[in-house]
Amino acid sequence: MMLLVLKLIIAHVLGDFVLQPDTWVADKKEKKQASLYLYLHTLVHAVTLLCMLSFDRRYLLAILIIVISHFLIDLIKLNLDKKVNFKLLFLLDQLAHLLVIAGVVYWYQPFFIDLSRVYSIEILLLVLAIIAVTSISSVIMKLLMSTWNLNEDHAKDSLEKAGKYIGILERLFVFAFIALGQWAAIGFLITAKSVFRFGDLSKAKDRKLTEYVLIGTLLSFGLAMIVGLLYTYAMGILSVTEI
User: Fold this and answer.
1) What beta strand segments (E) does the chain contain?
2) Full-model pTM
3) Given a cut of 80, is residue 232 above it in pLDDT?
4) What pLDDT, on the 0 to 100 scale, is given for residue 238?
5) What is d(CA 209, CA 152) in angstroms, rounded to the nearest whole number?
6) Which of 15, 58, 150, 163 has the fewest CB atoms found within 10 Å of its own CB?
7) Cβ distance 89 to 77 under 8 Å?
8) How far is the C-alpha of 41 from the C-alpha of 71, rounded, in Å?
9) How many CB atoms lie within 10 A of CB 122?
């Protein structure tokens, strides 16, 4: 089953991303169903599917279903362009394609999803840790850093909520490094952030700003480390009890 899934997903990725130039996308958005590239894009999908499935005649019906559904889904997406948020539209578009692929795989090779494994202690523990590293840590950071009302830049000089997302990403990296036992990588991450921030701090020549950034960085990394250590400790206990 997994072999068929991988072949179909690779064919989808090749057709939708690798073998679709930006000029095709722009033309499709402008002309919609009148665009020649819409049909050429569908043909590319058919060819990639044929190649990935080794021209096996057993899968001709699967190829036909995927190609026709892909064309219809793309057509609907093009007509909803500028009417629906483009991020949401992109996600729904890809989800629809993947659901079709899942349906085709199930038709040829029926499978069963064991929900008990999805709701296992290990998965739930990982989900809780990720929530703690992202949302909960962001709230804690906001509460603690609100002690100092320091405007580093004008709002127009920075991306909206950039600092929040940078903090979330760096904590996710730290958590992942701890979970994988790669403590040295955390040092490289701190060094990289220091290099990027050095220019801003040296230009500002503001001791308060330097202290504010340093406190925020150490607090962010510290929260991620605490969550990472608690997660690895809990996983260690689980592994021992299972034995």
Assistant:
1) none
2) 0.78
3) yes
4) 85
5) 7
6) 58
7) yes
8) 9
9) 13
